[in-house]
């Protein structure tokens, strides 16, 4: 049965508050899992991991972990113990309350009391117990639960765990490995969870709540379809459903209804961005919060049609095997809009800013650090060159023939001429394996090979038309290395032939205009000459050549 409602109140003027506390209703049992480390010399016991999970009464049984113990090394004084019990939920809550309040973690129901249990000190307990944190889609702290249905939790963490100060490195490593095996908690990846405690509560009253968005074709009518499944013997008359619109610039209540049947269609009455659904109970407060969900409006894509590919044979270089690089070739990027472009708004702008700050994708695009990551470094530079649509320039005083096929084929947009700035001084310091030349002769050999390599690559259509200019003199006018793609300029901390082998940076200049003018000045004036002109100069007698 589907029932459609209209909001009985003015939602934007009547916003309720709610409680969010632990409840034992519908959960008479709990499973307590505990790990502790025992020192045979001091006779002291230290808590390693503590976890309470309430069990819904409608579940027939819950399996608990088997008890076990492991020595932390052949001659170690430490042993780690793992135990779990099924106890009354009230006893489990009281035990966890004692852990939160005074750090006492030794279970009172254990037949053999623990020897000298050391209380957990310097505890962080935010929010204050017994308030619980909503788990929603993913757990705030990645501690697994057996039933998989917990939606609220409380986490107690320690500021200064004692065990890392008491254990040897090898003992601590074995302890971490044992906890991962028994509790599936990786303390190596999340060391903050060492000597922590966790309390999990399944969704009370309800078994589950599922929802989906409903927006029929041909009209602006948007709604939320909600399916409520109560636990055995539980009623829904004390439930309240609330739907909020959520934007980066704020949120507002759209509607609030009290369900009368388990399946509802909640009309929203207007065009909205993202929504959040809350399920509240008159006595238990907030039960569930889901979302945000977004209505489909449109998709805007930047598409490049791939019609062919370049196959560039790369020779073996510096311990790397010879290979063939496959570079997709396509038409220029074309915008494709499906369903209409979403309107620009402050919320949309802030959403993009938040996404960039959260993922750090913007920062990663602007600067990258490479050390021993040659493949990743090469890929980053090639991605920059492949983005060029109007112009591409490579400025590297050490650019030589070996660099042609590695970098230049990445420029694939038709009509983009590649410009390269290299230098006499740089080439005179770049040795050629198996060639015993120095000074002018070494530079001439480099430029001859570079000219031949470019001619071969252009003839095979492996690279776009390329112009090379050579900066002359013992001190070339440009020292740093740059990559130019259209109006953006990147600074490289090392030459391309060694980029990524040692620690170096790739940085996008925030204000590239002035630098771009200087690069073009060197390229277009007498501070550099064409490759052919430089070869002619080098063929002249040394006293006549312009060094």
What percent of the residues sit in helical stretches (DSSP H or I)?
A: 10-25%
Rg calc:
34 Å
The biggest beta sheet reads:
9 strands, mixed
Mean pLDDT comes to 83
Sum up the overall morphology in one term.
Answer: flat
Percent strand equals 25-35%
Structural class estimated from helices and strands: alpha+beta
Per DSSP, the total helix count is: 11
End-to-end CA span: 90 Å
In total, the number of strands is: 29
Taking pLDDT < 50 over at least 5 consecutive residues as the criterion, the unreliable ranges are: 11-15
Structure description:
The protein is α+β, with helices and mostly antiparallel strands. The protein is built from 11 helices and 29 strands. The chain has helices spanning 89-102, 163-166, 169-183, 346-359, 361-366, 374-386, 404-407, 424-428, 439-459, 513-524, 531-539; strands at 3-4, 29-39, 45-55, 68-71, 78-88, 117-118, 123-124, 133-134, 150-158, 196-202, 206-214, 223-230, 239-247, 250-257, 263-267, 274-281, 285-294, 299-303, 306-314, 323-330, 334-338, 367-370, 392-395, 418-423, 466-471, 481-485, 488-492, 504-508, 528-530. Strands 2, 3, 4, 5, 6, 7, 8, 9 and 10 form a 9-stranded mixed β-sheet that branches. The chain has an 8-stranded mixed β-sheet with strand order 22-28-27-26-23-24-25-29, sandwiched between helices. Strands 1-15-12-11 form a 4-stranded mixed β-sheet, with no helix packed on it. Strand 16 and strand 17 (285-294) form a beta hairpin. It is flat and about 100 Å long. 29% of the residues are buried. Residues 11-15 have low confidence and may be disordered.
